[in-house]
Amino acid sequence: MAHRWAGEGSRLLAVARDGALLGLVELDDAVRPEAAAAIAACHRAGIRPVLVTGDHAGTAEAVARAAGLVDDQHPLEGNVLARVEPDGCLSPRPPTCCCSSPGSTSRG
Known about the structure:
The chain is of the alpha+beta class and 108 residues long. Helices cover 27% and strands 19% of the residues.
């Protein structure tokens, strides 16, 4: 069930108490319409957008397809990088990779 939900772009949370599984919660975070338009504009301009996420690979693929990042002309391989490792870096590492943690960036 978890793989099916991830393949649909959902996130899955397990709820437990004292080590006993109480249930599963499915969360759906729809792609914003402006994201698909921005990705299409990048493709038209010859810019290759890449999705970098710590989400489950199936969730990342479903989100990338919904946003238009992955389609018949733009393959999944190399355009979607998922499964962040415990050290905060992607696996496998792309040729150029900058790893950061949420606390290492500033907003100004």
